[in-house]
Specification:
2 helices
Length: about 80
Amino acid sequence: MDEHTKKIIAPVIITIIFVLYYIGFAAVCLLIYGIPAFIKLFFGIVPLALAGVMIYVLLTRINEIRSGEEDDLSKY
C-alpha cells in the first residue's frame, strides 16, 4: 500500500459508519406508526441529506489527500 491509500482508509471507514447510521435512523423514522406524515418526512429527509453531505466531504478529503494538500492550514 502506498502512503495515500493508508491515509484514505480511516475517512472511508468513518464515512461508511455514519452513512449506515443515518440511513438506519431515516428508515426507523419513516417506519414509526402514529406520527404525522410531514414529521416522518422531515425526520427521514434530514438524515439522508446528512449522509449525502458526508459522502461529499469524503470525496473532497480524498481529492485533498491525492493532491498532497493534507493540511488545510498550510494555505494560510
